[in-house]
Amino acid sequence: MRSNADTVGHVGPSNAYTATNSMPANSAIRLRGRTAAGDWVYACCLPSSTQSFWVRRAYVNISNNVLPTGAPEGSEPNDARWLGVAPPDLTLVVRATPTSIPLGDFPLARYDSQNTGHVTTLPGPPLQIGWNVFNQAAQGFVSPAAVSGPSVLASSQDNHLYSLDLYAGNQRWRKDLQSSGPWAPSIQDGLIYIVSGAGNLFALQDQNNLAGLLWQSKLPANATSPLNIWLDTLLIGVGEGSEAQMLAIRRSNPDERREFPDPNQRVQQPAIGQETVFVGADRLWALDVNLWVSQEIVWTSPDVFDIATAPVYAYPGVVKLAELYVADGSGIVHALDANTGVRFWTYNAGAAVTALAVNEVSVFVVGNGALRAVSRQTGLQQWAQPISGAVMGGPLVTRNRVLVVMQNGGIALFDAVNGGILDAASSVPSTVPGGPAVSGVWVLVPATSQNVFAYRGTP
Predict the structure, then answer these.
(1) Does residue 97 belong to any structural domain of this protein?
(2) pTM of the model
(3) Which residues does the chain have with pLDDT short of 70?
(4) What is the total count of domains within the chain?
(5) d(Cα 32, Cα 342) in Å, to the nearest integer?
(6) pLDDT of residue 4
(7) Which 8-state DSSP code applies to residue 102?
């Protein structure tokens, strides 16, 4: 294989590891392995060195290979999936990895940092009201809900962030944010990060009967996306038009920041892969996640523009080792190799798409008055169901179920395999301003009627 651009090798599969050598474009090298997700490949050797090294998969052209025995008919012989996974180098410092989501928590706007909407469990039918607590806030709720341990979190128009008891609905505490904002709280390692309508960013600690303020910081412009989190880094879109950018902020020091200023329109919520951040705005970018080391653009899609949904990263992939899904402003859903940016299918939803979710076999597409399931393998529609209203937040999915909550209060639970309706009897008696959260058998729905409504289903 040959490198397709001037690049640098590293002693490990990350820009956080030491650079070992420079590799000019068109250098001939031999691949020896890859990471599990295929975002980095292990190679040897340059004419000037006998040292093996790691390089981004996006920077090499794999060629002149034959399919291994037993590969499915029609497979691509130069796919990186045929490389073996390289064993870890025990002499290297182990890279930090994000902590897993605690069971029952719903910490981010799309549940996880990949924006999949793929939750651990969804309740089965029938859904029934679980709380009888009313007027939990002085004014209506305005944000999506989140769950952290025993706490359900949502912001109210009365300028406070509320914590409600997950099992009873009573108020645990409230925190004055000075203004109300439409963005979901984001939670990592028990800490709560929330953006107010005035562009203030707060870091809070739940102290059982109150919220302790860790720090408060000002964004350079109003937020255009919820916060996403990777290790010690907060990622958020801010600004409009030519002022749009993605901003990275240290959780441990909010004054330490990095800016990605290339977008020329509103930035959607970034998605985070293994060592990559995916940014959708007027174009679609993949950035190296180690923004404190350098601002490296891994690839920019030549095929996808005017991004209308938060990108969704899916690993393991079905067609590729890791995959990225996104919809554009014309209603086209694009499936791409997350490691290279190469598109492998498109699906035309026929009108605007507002959100995507993925499970093991399907991409779930919301828009144009319908919920659709599309095969991750082929890009062909598997089923479609009409829905009566805007879906808030986006679908939440498991292998077997799909949950949608509509702005008009409707709640519907579908069979993920065939689209059959499992439950559509429940309805929030108010307008829903933001996406729901789920926790085990609970569905938590914020409403403009000063309440978060809790619905309880079956396991």
Answers:
(1) no
(2) 0.96
(3) 1-5, 47-48
(4) 2
(5) 23
(6) 62
(7) P
